[in-house]
Each structure stands twice: as structure tokens, then as C-alpha cells.
Amino acid sequence: MRTSPSKSVLSRRLAAAVVLPGLLTSSLVLIQPAAAAGTTSNSSICNGVVNQQAHRGGVQENLLKAASKRNADAIARLQAEKEKLQSQEAVLAAEIGAMDKTLAALDAQGQQLDKEFADVDSALSALKLKVGETNSAIADGEEVLAVLQGQHADAASRLAPLEADLAAALAASEVLKGEVALLAADQDANNAAIAVALGELETLQQAAADATDAVAGKDAEIGQAQGDLAELAIQAGQAADAVTSAEAAVAEAETQLATMVAAGTTADEALKAQTVLVANAQEALAGREAQAEEADAAVTDKATQIATAQGEMTALESAAADAKAALDAKNAAIAAAQVELATLQQEAAEAAAAMTANDEMIAAVAAEISALQGQVSATGAAITAKRAEISKAQEELTVLEGQATALDAEFKEITQQISAIRGNTDEKKILLDLRQSKQAELALVDQQITDKAAQISGLQGDLAALNTQINTLNAQLAARQQESSTLQQNVAPLQAALTAANAGVTAKESDIADLEAQVSDLEDALKKADSAVSAEQADLLLLEEQRAVLEQAAADAAAEVAAQQKVVTDLEAALPGLESAAQNVQQAIADQEAVLATRNLELAQAQDDLAAADTAVDGKESEIRALQDELSVLQTALDDANKAAAAKEAEVASLNTLAESLAVQITAANARITAKEAEIVSLQERVAPLADQLSKLNGEISAVEANLASLQLQLTALDKQVTDAQATLRALEAQKKQNKDAITEQRAVVTGVQAQLGAVQVKINVIDGTIALGGCAV
User: Fold this and answer.
1) DSSP E strands: which ranges in 16-80?
2) In whole angstroms, what is the distance from residue 394 CA to residue 392 CA?
3) ∠ Cα 149 150 152 (to 5°)
4) Handedness of CA 320, 325, 329, 331 (dihedral sign)
5) What is the pLDDT of residues 549-562, one digit of tens each?
6) Predicted TM-score (pTM) of this structure
């Protein structure tokens, strides 16, 4: 922004042309007494001559000569001073020309900076205008969004009760449909019950008819059974007579059998006596053979015992070796288990350490999360405060820019008023002072604007840094939360690993304890096996001695068997004749027993026939009683069937009445359902446009929100452009300030040199005037 009106080179030169004569005039006025003081001697001489002439009325020659000489000296001195001053004037004029060129270059640079400043200022104004337009568009969008949201809320509030009514109507419709379904189910069940009852009624009616037929049939069966009973009584009498005849035949056969049995007994006794002798001889032979077999068996058994003892000896030795191997293996297993226990204990320790480390990491991450959440809250509060500071600074910047615009307008107006005034009047001086004060105020306001823009830029930088910081903190917080979640998920497998490791250690310690307990048993077993081997060796020696004795006993028993075998052979030679006689008698007995058996069979048959006849009579009588009982039951069933048929007819009538009632209820429920469905259609017709309106409003709200997001992005970009333009403007202001300072400094130098030039010119003029007066200052 411009802080003072730009001046052209021509205007500056015109100002110099106006100022320099004034300065020179002032210098002449001020320097004249000094010049007079410098020519005091000459002037005194000239004044003395004049005064004398004035006093005496004539000229004194000697005084005139002295004055002429002095004037000539003064003129020569003045000429030298004039030449010196003229050389100074040329040097000063050259310096002023060089300084004018420097000023011209500085003016050109100032004009270029003014142009660049104006361009940047214009661009900044355009950007601020765009920022304002964007803010206005955002405000308008927010207003439109608020209106749309209000419409959305209104539509939603109108739609909600309708949807509730629609839901209630649908629910009521479903309830009515459920009631109809229940009534229909009841109707179906009632119809099914009617059909079942009709079927049962038909069945009961058929059962009553069947019962009537059964009663008639049973009466006929009873009559038939009573006729059969009479015939069976006759058959029973005939069977009793047959039994009596059979009993007589059996008695005669038994007598004949007794005679034959007596003869057979005698023959048997002779045979039995011979058989007893043979049996005794065979028994003695068997005893001898048994003794011989026992002796052989004892030898064999002893050999078997020796072989068994040798096998047991081998087994015991193998068992002793196995026991020692088992003991060595168990010791090796204990050593291996102790190594595995150490490994498991190490794994358990590592699992416990991992669990502890995970718990510590969870606690540490939780502390970091708490700290990050605190930092996020603090940073969010700082962002809110920073935004408030930026808003306040922007409002203050707007006020300062308004003040700068007003001061610039006042400055231009005062400059126009000064330009309109001719000459150096008091009013012009007042306006010049006023313009200078306005320029100072404008410079102060411009500096405040620059400072405020720098402050806003710094605050925006701080805000960006805070946004970056809060994004970083949120990212760190999310990472820590994810890490905490991961660590929490690790707790279960780590705990499971620790539990498994501890269980493995406990199991392995139990295994080692079991193995150590087994070592003692194995050591005892090894000792017992060694003792058994020693005892078995002693038993084996004893069995070898006993086998020799038993082998001698077996040889003696074999000799006794051969002698007894001869006795048995002699007795068996007499045995066949006795056996033949006994066999003949036994055959006769067998024949008579067959006759007796036949008679007994005939008797048994007669008795069976009698029993069958009696049984048939009893059965028929029982059958008649049963038929009579069945007749009573059938009569009762007939009565019950008639009663059940009557009850079922009444039940069918009741079910028909219920069916008519259910039909009426279903018709009424269907009418209510029709009315409720009409109400649902009406509600749906009212809900549909509101739902469409709500959907349309949702789309419009989404579009406005998207537009607001786009405008916010544009505003962010414009803020960056404004910040960049303000930075460029501050850089140009710094350059302009440097240019102004250089111009001011150069002008001060030019003014000083011009003052020196004026002084030299005044001196030259004074010298020229003095020379023109002959060296006397008049």
C-alpha cells in the first residue's frame, strides 16, 4: 500500500529551482555583513578618503594612492579567492550533476517499486475480495444448509408420526391377519373335528350294528356248544371202558415180565461175578499201569520241571538283565527328563518374562495414550484459541486498512489543495504541516497493517503448525491405540503359553518323581531277580538228583504191569460164555418189556382218550360259560355303542354350531383387515411424497455440504495466496523504505552541496561586487 504520493523527477527539479534561489538570496542577505567585515581595512580607507573629502570638501592625494594600492591588493586577493571559489563551484556543480543522476536512478527504482507495490497491492486486494466473496459464499452456503436442514427436520418430523402410524397400522393389520389365521385354523380344526366326529359316529353306529349281530351269533354258538357237550359226555363213557380193559392187559404183561426178570437176574449175577473178577484184575492192572504211568509221568514231570527250571533260569537271568537295562534306561530317562525340565523351566521363565514385558508395555502404552490424549485436548484448545486470535487480528487488520484508506484519501485531498494554492501562504504552510502529519499517521497505520499482517501470518503459521501437531498426535494416538490393542490381544496367547509352560514343568517334575520312584522299585526288582536266579540254580541241582530216583521207580513199575497183564488176559478168556448166556436172558426180558410197553402204551392211550374226553367236556362247559360271558359283554358293548353314538351326534351338532360362529368371526375380521389395509394404503400415499422430499433434501444437503467443503478448500488456498502476497508486499515495502531512505539521504547530500554551491556563488558575487567597486565595499 502506498504511504505517500509519488513525485516525478521534473517536480523535484522544479522544487529545487524554487528552493535554490531562495537559499541563495538568504545566503546573500546573511553573508553581506560577513563580507563587509572581511573588507574592513579597505572600506575604512575608502570611507576615510570619502569622509575627509566630505569633511574638507576635496581629495587627499596620498590617501587616494594608498587606497588605490590597497584596493589593487584587495582586488588581486579577491580575484584569487574568486578563482578558487569558481573551481569549488565547478566541483560542486559536477557533484550536484552526479547526485541528480543518482536521484534520477533512485526515482526510477522508486517508480518501479511503486508499480510493483501497486500490482501486488491490487492483487492482494483482489485476493481479499475473493476471500470475502468466498466467505460470503460459505456464509450463504451455511444459510442454505441451515434452511435445508430445517426443511429436512420439518419433513422428518412430519414423516416420523406418519411412519409410526403406518407401522402401527401394519402391525394392527398383521395382528388382524394373525387373528384371522387363528380363526381359520380354529375353523379348520373344527371342520376336521366334525369330520372325525362324523367318522367316529359312523364307526360307533357300525359298532352298535356289529354288536347286535355279535349277540345273535353268540346265542347261536351257545346252543351249538350245548349239543356238542351231550355228544362229548357219551364219548367220555366209552373212553372209561377202554381204560379198564387196558389196565387188565397191562397187569398180565407185568406178571410175565417178572418171571423173565428173575431168570435174567440169575444169569446176570454169574456174569457180574465173572465181570467183577475181570474188573478187579483190570483194576489191579490199571493200578500197576497207573503206577508205571505215574512213575513215567514223574520222570517226565521232573524232566519238565528241570526244563522249566532251566527256562525259568534263562528267563530269570533275562529278567535280571532286563531289570538292569530298565534301571539304566530309567536313570537315563531321569537324566533326559531333568534336561527337558531345565528347558521347560527356561521356557516358563521366558513366557513369564514375555507376559511381564507385555503387561509393562500395555501399561506404558496406556500411559502414552493418556498423555497423547491430554496433548490432543491441549492442542485442540490451542487451535481454537489460535483461530480466535486470527479472527480478532483479521478484524483489527480490516479496521487498520479502513483507516489507511481514509488517511490516503485525506492525504490526496490535502495534496490537491496544496497544488491549488499559488505562492507560499500561511494556509499552504498549514496544509503542508497537516499533510506531513497525515503522512506520518499513514506511515504509522501502514506499519501497523504490516505488523498486523505479519502477526496474522505468524498466527496462521502457528495454526498450521498446531494442525500438523494435532494430526501428528492423532496419528501417534491411533498408532498407540493399535499397539495397545495388539498387546491386549497378545495377553491371551502369552498367558496360554505361560500356563502351558508351567503345566509342562509341573508334568515333567511329576514324571521325574515317578521315574525316581520307579528307580527304587527297579533296584528292588533287580535284587529280587538276582536272588531268584541263585535260588533257581539250587532248585535245578535238586531236581536233577530227584530225576535219577524217579527213573528207577518207573522201571520197577513197568515190570509189575507186565505180570498183572497176564492175570487179566486169563480172566477175560472165561468171560465170553457167561456173556452169551446173559445176553439170551436179556433178550427175552427185552421182548417181554416190549410187550409190556405196548400194553402200557395202550393203557396210556386209553387214559389219554379218557382225559381228552373229560377235557373236551370241561372245555365245552367252559366254552359255554365263556360264550355266555361274551354275550353279556357284547350286550354291554351294544348299550355303550348306542350311548356313544348318541353323544357323538350331540358333539357333531355342537361342532357345527361352533363352525357357524367361526365363519361369522372370520367374515368380521376380514372386514376389519380390508379397512386397515385401506388405511395403510392411505398412509403409504402420504408417506411416499414426504420420503421423496426427505430424499431430495438429503441430496441437496449433500450437494451444499460438498460445495461448502470445496469453498473451504478454496478459502484455504486463498488464505495461502493472501499470506504470500502480504509477504511479497512486506518485502516491497522494505525495498521502498530502503529506496526512500536512500533518496532522502541523497537529497540531504544534494541540499548540503547546493547550500555549499550557493554559498560559493554568493561569495563570488560579493567578490565581483567588491572588485567592481575597486576593492571597496559600498
Assistant:
1) none
2) 5
3) 60
4) positive
5) 777 877 877 777 78
6) 0.30
